[in-house]
């Protein structure tokens, strides 16, 4: 019996040695390059003698944090992306050939180059709150609307870890798509340059209220093109609507771009209406400026449209003369939990719910709306509505009446038409922004808030206390939270 066991053991060892010998591969070359000469991204080209899958394990020397890339498909030539690297930082790494018996290369090293001077963020100092735990594990996506335009990711230490640049046009706003890419609204700088510059709190309090808040078509915060960008910074496609359409209503979109599961894009546009309105006691014919929803595909083809004029009674509107060129100034679009639309109508200080199929106006929420609510929680000239993971409606209250801005969220009971205030995170007085801005509930319970006119991107608690702040040199229209899970198909932290 003992002899049989020994013989079986010997046979197993021989078989294992044979398979190990048969499976053995040779790592012929490893080449590191930095696409677009960025400090935050290395591409590793790996050449094998025989076809096999590979992956890379790499470690940041300073912190000891280790990561593993995706496993590539079996081949002899592999291209592995190392993303979100820190600038001017040393890393060690190994290439692993993922055979039955894994083959590891010797430990290799590389150091990323220093950050480009134009991407260095100088906010991180004692003059601003900088609790690095406040943001959690994710990053913040910001957009730059001047030339050249760009999107950039900022981490909890204020460092830029990813960037995409476009030379001929600015980037107004962006969103994360269901397929884990970035969808960018592109706009010519001259279209709305007044919104690009920061102001002191005193200027916001005084100068912003000297000019009309509703500036008509020059204040649409819009764009003339869209682009989808991969997480490696590759432009997947770009559509220039102003070059594609002769009809002016389809040439410009504004404020929001959302991609649904069918990869259709939902955005806002400015349909006009020719109608008779009372002016100084007389009925005159004029072209009225309004807003609507436009659905397009990734080729730029218009699939559906909805206009606010379809649900608005011009004859009973006491303000139609005053706001005839920008009656609604709708500045935010999102999907409700049931798939219908929620629209921000800041001139009415309301959020509207629109049936996505019929176009019917289902209800109005806010001042003079359909919900019973705490009148002290009224909001004004609000931006960026969205539904939180708890099903609450969150928005950014610009606070034109009391000159205090901040995040608010509400639990809406659509059966009984009541609204409960869940969060009222008013920012400090010096962070008042009369226009733009947004708020987002982070996974850790804190809030990401943008005071656009003061240039401040902040993480606050639910009472509005500022825990973390990045002051930009321009007025960021909005800041988007990007969870680390977005990058799972490229790499994961392993320790």
From TrEMBL:
This is Arylsulfotransferase N-terminal domain-containing protein. Pfam families: Arylsulfotrans. InterPro entries: Arylsulfate_ST, Arylsulfotransferase_bact. GO terms for molecular function: aryl sulfotransferase activity. PANTHER family: ASST-DOMAIN-CONTAINING PROTEIN, PQQ ENZYME REPEAT PROTEIN-RELATED. It comes from Parabacteroides goldsteinii CL02T12C30. It comes from the Bacteria.
């Amino acid at each position: 019996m003992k002899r049989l066991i020994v013989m079986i053991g010997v046979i197993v060892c021989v078989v294992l040695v044979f398979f190990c010998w048969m499976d053995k591969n040779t790592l012929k070359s490893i080449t590191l390059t930095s696409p677009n000469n960025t400090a935050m991204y290395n591409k590793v080209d790996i050449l094998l003698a025989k076809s096999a899958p590979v992956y890379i394990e790499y470690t940041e020397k300073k912190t000891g944090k280790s990561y593993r890339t995706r496993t590539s498909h079996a081949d002899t030539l592999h291209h592995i992306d190392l993303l979100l690297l820190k600038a001017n930082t040393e890393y060690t790494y190994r290439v692993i050939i993922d055979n039955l018996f894994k083959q590891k290369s010797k430990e290799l090293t590389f150091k990323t180059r220093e950050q480009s001077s134009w991407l260095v963020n100088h906010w991180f100092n004692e003059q601003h709150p900088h609790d690095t735990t406040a943001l959690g594990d994710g990053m913040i996506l910001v957009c730059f609307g001047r030339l050249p335009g760009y999107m950039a990711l900022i981490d909890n230490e204020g460092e830029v870890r990813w960037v995409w640049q476009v030379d001929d046009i600015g980037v107004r706003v962006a969103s994360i798509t269901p397929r884990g890419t970035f969808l960018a609204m592109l706009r010519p700088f001259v279209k709305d340059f007044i919104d690009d510059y920061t102001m002191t709190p005193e200027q916001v309090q005084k100068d912003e209220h000297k000019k009309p808040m509703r500036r008509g078509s020059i204040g649409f915060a819009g764009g003339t093109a869209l682009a989808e960008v991969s997480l490696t910074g590759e432009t997947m496609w770009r559509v220039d609507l102003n070059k594609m359409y002769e009809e002016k209503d389809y040439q410009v979109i504004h404020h929001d771009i959302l991609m649904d599961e069918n990869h259709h894009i939902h955005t806002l546009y400015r349909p006009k209406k020719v109608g008779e309105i009372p002016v100084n006691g007389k009925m005159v014919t004029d072209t009225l400026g309004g807003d609507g929803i436009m659905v397009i595909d990734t080729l730029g083809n218009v699939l559906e449209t909805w206009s606010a004029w379809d649900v608005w009674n011009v004859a009973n509107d006491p303000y139609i003369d005053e706001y005839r060129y920008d009656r609604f100034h709708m500045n935010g679009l999102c999907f409700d939990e049931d798939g219908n639309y929620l629209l921000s109508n800041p001139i009415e200080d309301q959020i509207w719910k629109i049936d996505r199929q019929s176009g019917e106006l289902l209800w109005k929420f806010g001042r003079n709306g359909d919900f019973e609510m705490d009148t002290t929680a009224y909001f004004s000239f609000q931006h960026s509505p969205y539904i939180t993971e708890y099903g609450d409606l969150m928005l950014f209250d610009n606070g034109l009446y009391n000159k205090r801005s901040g995040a608010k969220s509400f639990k809406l009971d659509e059966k009984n038409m009541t609204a409960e205030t869940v969060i009222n995170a008013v920012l400090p007085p010096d962070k008042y922004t009369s226009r733009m801005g947004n708020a987002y509930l982070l996974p850790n319970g804190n809030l990401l808030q943008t005071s656009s006119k003061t240039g401040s991107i902040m993480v606050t608690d639910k009472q509005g206390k500022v825990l973390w702040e990045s002051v930009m040199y321009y007025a960021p229209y909005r800041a988007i939270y990007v969870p680390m899970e977005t990058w799972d198909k490229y790499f994961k932290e392993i320790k």
